[in-house]
Design a protein that fits this description.
Number of strands: 8
CATH class: Alpha Beta
Number of domains: 1
Oligomer: single chain
Helix content: 40-55%
Radius of gyration: 20 Å
Structural class: alpha/beta
CATH topology: Rossmann fold
Largest sheet: 8 strands, mixed
Distance between the termini: 20 Å
Strand order of the largest sheet: 3-4-2-5-1-6-7-8
Number of helices: 13
Order of helices and strands: HEHEHHEEHHHEHEHEHEHHH
Shape: globular
Strand content: 5-15%
């Protein structure tokens, strides 16, 4: 399976990593970027069109457990940390990003389900982190898949409804970035998302099942483009990888390169390392990676105090140093924003819409 041909991406120079710093007291684990170059990059991206859902990024793979929710949570948190407004749409029945990653109870996807079926206005959960709003996902989204088979006869168009309600919300709230987390198995909803989003990011693990999920998604992406969607492929990112397994990583990246033939996109040079301890802490404590760095530093300080006072127990944190993982996510965020900037600048220069 090959992707429809389009212009290759241009690359911007990478920026150096920065250490997160502690945020306001009401968000004790919030990080706040203090790097001028990082904030300048954010500003460059934000200066593009602001009031339309033109910077809507769908994160998808037709295989579950490949890091979609983790990547959306991390990228959203880092862009919001830089003082920009971000909307996360949890279009997954499992609601991992709503409940586990961001720690929001939500409405089990009822509002999003009603927007998809009946174009009812979307009302987000506001400031789940400073500057970060959320449309919660959940079990109610199963209704969308169930009614999709008879939608045409009933006069329902879930893609048009979603485009209308998301566009109205973005026009009203003026979000600088919209990230959509998709589920692996709901094909009608995935097709609607592919028709609505402007950009597509595809995470994958290095196993055959995950790569098969990429190939299946390529077919749906191609059909969406043929049906008139203007969605553009940002690239594929390797998730849960061993940075030291250079031979294996090279083999996997070669396979992904073959899948990307004709797309004009490239594999992200940033990969997200495997860190089981951090993964447990992120989900059980409902933290973003940059928040976990702060939590780990505080936990280490308190641990030293407890040892000095010969006090045991306490609230255990499994990850000792999650800064490497947080650095991976920061590098990926910079790379995503660079590619968004390059795509938008090329579209403005050429007058292209796809």
């Amino acid at each position: 399976m090959t992707w429809p041909s389009r212009r290759p991406w241009s690359w911007a120079e990478p920026l150096r990593c920065v250490r997160a710093s502690k945020g306001p007291d009401q968000y004790p684990h919030r990080s706040a970027c203090r790097c001028p170059e990082w904030c300048a990059l954010i500003s460059t991206v934000i200066r593009m069109s602001r009031s339309q859902p033109d910077r809507t990024v769908l994160v998808a793979n037709q295989k579950g457990g490949v890091g979609k929710s983790s990547i959306v949570s991390a990228v959203a948190g880092m862009v919001a940390d830089a003082g920009r407004r971000v909307l996360v749409v949890d279009a997954d029945q499992q609601a991992n990003i709503t409940v586990s990653d961001l720690g929001v109870e939500g409405d089990r996807g009822r509002a999003l389900s009603m927007a998809l079926q009946y174009a009812e206005p979307l009302e987000p959960s506001r400031d789940v982190r400073p500057g970060l709003d959320l449309i919660p996902g959940g079990a109610a989204l199963a209704l969308v898949g169930a009614m999709a088979a008879t939608a045409a006869q009933a006069g329902l168009d879930i893609q048009a409804n979603f485009a209308q309600t998301l566009g109205a919300l973005c026009e009203r709230e003026r979000y600088d970035l919209v990230l959509i987390d998709s589920g692996p198995g709901d094909a009608p909803l995935l097709d609607a998302l592919l028709q609505t989003a402007k950009y597509l990011l595809v995470p994958t693990r290095d196993d055959d099942a995950s790569l098969s999920g990429v190939e299946l998604l390529a077919a749906r992406y191609l059909r969406a483009r043929q049906a008139g969607s203007t969605i553009q492929l940002l690239g594929v990112v390797l998730f849960d990888a061993n940075p030291r397994a250079t031979a294996r990583n090279a083999e996997v990246l070669s396979q992904v390169d073959q899948l990307l033939v004709g797309s004009g996109a490239e594999i992200f040079s940033s990969l997200i390392r495997s860190d089981r301890a951090a993964a447990v802490d992120l989900r059980t404590r409902h933290l973003t990676p940059s928040e976990l760095v702060i939590a780990a530093e505080e936990h280490q300080r308190h641990r030293i105090q407890r040892l000095r006072q010969k006090v045991g127990g306490g609230d255990r944190l499994w990850s000792r140093d999650p800064s490497g993982l947080a650095g991976d996510y920061q590098a990926l965020t910079r790379e995503i924003l660079n590619r968004l900037t390059a795509a938008e600048q090329w579209n403005v220069t050429t007058g292209a819409v796809s």
